[in-house]
Specification:
By secondary structure, this protein is α+β, with helices and mostly antiparallel strands. It contains nine helices and 19 strands. It folds into two domains: about 220 residues, 2-Layer Sandwich (PmbA/TldD fold), CATH 3.30.2290; about 220 residues, no CATH class. A hairpin with a 7-residue loop joins strand 11 and strand 12. One of its GO terms (molecular function) is metallopeptidase activity.
């Protein structure tokens, strides 16, 4: 891999070429990465994969017309041709009154903060293999586990560089590590599957492989011999690993492009009380070693910690420059950028806070309900907020988690579900989007 400075030089050089060739404005993104992944199954090495790549993308503006083009070939002659084609394409593109680079007076200036997202390591494949084997061995050692879909360990590093013609130049590097296992319990037609995984920026921050594997095995065994749920309206409790999907639906509904196109179920909700006043949802791009941490966004604007939901109230949209112009607002530092196409929006490290009771207390008064640990299907309408998904989990009877259940559907409307949501106090920061255990009363269950 290149050094971060060499990566930034490549992006800056491409922008410089574009301006000399006649572009009115331009930006360039350079991305390179290298990763190693080891897969094992039933105690045997199954695969070792190493990938390395680099790509560069150029966006040029000719008046209000723009075009993007990308390449994985860094040959100078190829890149020179790339610039020429991009400008020719832009001249033929339709005008867009909202297109353009981010406001120059809003760009990040000065030193770029470092959030310790790169430990600089490149673990040997033998170390990754040992971790994967330890993880799978621990999962298979759980009584009741009868087979394995395998375990894996991975390590990678990446560099992202962004340069613009109006003064921004920034680069960031990141490392990433993961361990996972997926195993089966039971025999014949009564098999059940479950999994566990962890991802971190620093190798030293990973949970032990044995603990990850043990959790995968225990979850698979707990799912054995599922029963059915009777249809009706009841409280539903969501495990953190699936509850985070609700935050994802919220974020999709408040993206600037969805609001500008009037295709969001939250279109008229700015400043509205969407959640209980005990709940806040925070986007924190400056968390040390956070999976989604970043000092600048995909347009070169500075990032900042922000409460998207403040005591239940929706505080604003997530906007890149184009949608902000269309809405007559300011961009929010949430632009995301790949090597092709115009910027979109994405959050950084998001978490839901506000729970004050234990999980046991959260479910203590539920006479009959369900605890969900798996969701299936894509039955969510982003325009209306209507929600219907397949689910599996456990019954809750008289305030206690009871036996496993599967093959049922939960349904509601996201706005109603947000309003009825309460949270436990078991928030952990293990992903880029984190929530505690969540409870939603009054959901419809379609079961047996």
């Amino acid at each position: 891999m290149l050094t971060p400075q060499h990566a930034l030089d490549r992006a800056q050089n491409l922008v410089s070429q574009a301006m000399k060739a006649g572009a009115d404005a331009a930006d360039a993104v350079y991305v390179c990465d290298a990763s190693t992944e080891v897969q094992v199954r039933l105690g045997q090495l199954e695969d070792v994969a190493r990938s390395e790549g680099e790509d560069i993308g150029l966006r040029v503006f000719v008046g209000q017309r723009s075009a993007t083009i990308s390449s994985s070939n860094m040959n100078p002659d190829i890149l020179a041709g790339l610039v020429t084609r991009a400008i020719d394409m832009a001249k033929e593109a339709p005008e867009d009154q909202y297109a353009g680079l981010a406001p120059q007076d809003r760009l990040l200036t000065g030193a770029i903060p470092n959030f310790d997202g790169d430990d600089g390591l490149d673990p040997d494949p033998a170390l990754l293999r040992a971790a994967a084997l330890e993880c799978e061995d621990a999962a298979r050692a759980v009584p009741g586990v009868t087979n394995s879909e395998g375990a894996g360990a991975s390590a990678g590093r990446s560099i992202f560089a962004l340069a613009t013609s109006h003064g921004f130049a920034g680069v960031k590097s990141g490392s990433g590590y993961g361990i996972s296992a997926s195993v089966l319990s039971g025999d014949g037609d009564a098999k059940e599957r479950d999994y566990e995984w962890r991802s971190t920026r620093h190798f030293a921050d990973l949970d032990s492989p044995a603990s990850i594997g043990m959790r995968a095995g225990e979850r698979a065994v707990k799912r054995l011999n599922p029963g059915t749920v009777k249809s009706g309206q009841m409280p539903v409790v969501f495990d953190p690993r699936v509850g985070s999907s609700f935050v994802g639906h919220l974020l999709g509904g408040i993206s600037g492009s969805a609001i500008a196109r009037k295709t969001s179920f939250l279109l008229e909700s700015l400043g509205a009380q969407l959640f209980d006043s005990s709940i806040s949802i925070v986007d924190d791009p400056h968390r040390m070693r956070g999976l989604g941490s970043r000092a600048f966004d995909g347009e070169g604007l500075p990032t900042a910690r922000r409460s998207i939901i403040e005591k239940g109230v929706l505080t604003g949209w997530l906007m890149e420059s184009a949608s902000a112009r269309q809405l007559g607002l300011e961009p929010t530092g949430h632009a995301s950028r790949g090597i092709s196409g115009a910027p979109g929006v994405s959050p950084s490290n998001v978490h839901l806070e506000g729970g004050s009771v234990s999980v046991a207390d959260l479910i203590a008064d539920i006479k009959h309900g369900v605890y969900i640990h798996e969701l299936a299907g894509q039955g969510v309408n982003p325009v209306t907020g209507d929600y219907s998904r397949g689910a599996a989990g456990f019954l809750i009877l008289n305030g206690e988690i009871a036996g496993p259940v599967s093959e049922f559907t939960i349904a509601g409307n996201l706005k109603d579900m947000f309003a009825a949501m309460t949270a436990a106090n078991d928030l952990e920061f293990t992903r880029s989007m984190n929530v505690p255990t969540l409870r939603i009363d009054g959901m419809m269950i379609a079961g047996a």
